[in-house]
């Protein structure tokens, strides 16, 4: 069991930097929580506070009903896997993995049994007698994880564990972490700045910016209902397109005018616009590249970049000082320099208040 609660947690460093602000999160047993956000947004600091490697300046950390603010890291019963693996270079793989058990005075036979069991799960049986310097990056990463698994902690904390691996190995290790999560039936808290990792691994994703939580949601929810312009632009590749516009009512219907077009809003969105008093106000319209269309009418523009990816093609246009990305079929006859019209799937647009940048 591992239920972890952070209540209004702050981290202020001595030099005056407030790295984490008012962080409140409820982690349930067996959640796979991912902290994601741009560099410096406070992901690692939050993780380190949970691990007990960084002191909490204000607020409370509760693990399984017990306040943990002042409990030593080693007494929190959680294991941390670091980006740089932090293996002991003079010890063999087996010794590295057994280290925590030795500290707990677990008998040798039992230690060996446990290490072999975990080595099997991770495919490390062949390298148990090697030293870390004789391992590949992926193997080192597995040993670092093995060392954590052997301890059977309440929760696994991982700080960018895959960032030192090449793209192919990252994908492979990502799948292995997914498998481990299913097999170990444990709570995982994982830090990354990579949105693909966040979306594929997390059951609950925490998007952070400048020390503050922007949204806590499942991957689907994050993608389909981003809470604000920042989340909308951060999750999704190429990023969501944004257009300035204004909401108006005509003959009982709600329209948004943007890029010279009048778009009638679907009934549920129209209701929200009315309820949130957005009529007559400036709004930001968000449309994902896959929800854009090349059509007979819409905004006429010249294709500035043509990107054929095999399974699909992206067309990029200059518009209103920014870039608009449109996903289209791989076999599109359109090429760079062509003048075409782009348009939106009207039922797929996202609306945000222009001032608060919050979702309407
Ligand atoms: P990255 O993805 O680059 O690792 P992050 O989101 O994990 O970033 P943190 O490492 O948590 O960010 O840092 C958050 C902020 O706190 C940054 O502005 C960083 O400079 C600052 N910070 C981190 N550690 C310290 C420290 N020991 N003393 C002072 N400031 C710190």
Poorly predicted parts? none
**Small ligands present:** adenosine-5'-triphosphate
Q: How many strand segments?
A: 20
Overall average residue pLDDT:
93
Percentage beta strand? 25-35%
If you compute it from the alpha carbons, what radius of gyration comes out, rounded to the nearest whole angstrom? Answer: 25 Å
**SSE order in H/E notation?**
EEEHEEEHHHEHEHEEHHEEEHEEEEEEE
The coarse overall form would be elongated
Reading side by side through the largest sheet, how are the strands ordered?
6-7-8-3-9-10
Let me know the largest β-sheet.
Answer: 6 strands, mixed
Q: Work out the helicity level.
A: 25-40%
Query: What structural class results from the helix and strand content?
Result: alpha+beta
Amino- and carboxy-terminal Cα gap: 38 Å
* Count of DSSP H/I helices: 9
The gist of it:
Helix content is 26%, strand content 35%. It has 360 residues and is of the alpha+beta class.
Describe the structure.
The protein has a 6-stranded mixed β-sheet, sandwiched between helices. The relative contact order is 0.11. The protein is 26% helix and 35% strand. It is elongated, with a radius of gyration of 25 Å. The longest helix is centred in the middle third of the chain and has 18 residues. It has 360 residues and is of the alpha+beta class. The protein has 9 helices and 20 strands. A hairpin with a 3-residue loop joins strand 16 and strand 17. Bound molecules: adenosine-5'-triphosphate. The site of adenosine-5'-triphosphate has 13 residues, from helix 1.
């Amino acid at each position: 069991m591992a239920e972890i609660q952070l209540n209004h947690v702050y981290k202020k460093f001595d030099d005056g930097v407030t790295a984490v602000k008012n962080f409140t999160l409820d982690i349930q047993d067996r959640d796979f929580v991912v902290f994601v956000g741009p560099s410096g947004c406070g992901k690692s600091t939050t993780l380190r506070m949970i691990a007990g490697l960084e002191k909490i300046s204000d607020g409370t950390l509760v693990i399984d009903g017990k306040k943990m603010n002042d409990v030593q890291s080693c007494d929190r019963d959680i294991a941390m896997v670091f980006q740089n693996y932090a293996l002991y270079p003079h010890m063999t793989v087996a010794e590295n993995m057994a280290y925590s058990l030795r500290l707990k005075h677990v008998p040798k036979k039992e230690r060996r049994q446990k290490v072999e069991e975990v080595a099997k799960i991770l495919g490390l049986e062949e390298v148990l007698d090697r030293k870390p310097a004789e391992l590949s990056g992926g193997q080192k990463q597995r040993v670092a994880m093995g060392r954590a698994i052997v301890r059977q902690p309440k929760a696994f904390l991982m700080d960018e564990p895959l960032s030192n691996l090449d793209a192919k190995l990252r994908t492979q290790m990502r799948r292995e972490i997914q498998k481990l999560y299913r097999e170990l039936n444990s709570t995982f808290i994982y830090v990354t700045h990579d949105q693909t990792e966040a979306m594929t691994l997390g059951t609950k994703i925490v998007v952070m910016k400048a020390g503050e939580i922007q949204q806590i949601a499942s991957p689907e929810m994050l993608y389909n209902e981003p809470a604000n312009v920042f989340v909308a632009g951060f999750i999704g590749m190429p990023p969501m397109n944004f257009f300035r516009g204004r909401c108006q009512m005509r003959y009982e219907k709600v329209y948004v005018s943007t890029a010279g077009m009048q778009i009638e809003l679907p009934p549920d969105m129209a209701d929200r616009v009315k309820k949130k008093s957005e009529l007559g106000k400036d709004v930001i319209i968000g449309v994902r590249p896959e929800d854009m269309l090349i059509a007979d009418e819409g905004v006429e523009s010249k294709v500035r970049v043509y990107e054929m990816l095999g399974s699909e093609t992206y067309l990029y246009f200059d518009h209103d000082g920014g870039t608009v990305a449109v996903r289209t079929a791989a076999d599109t006859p359109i090429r760079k320099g062509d003048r075409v019209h782009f348009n939106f799937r009207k039922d797929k647009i996202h609306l945000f208040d222009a001032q608060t940048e919050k979702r309407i």
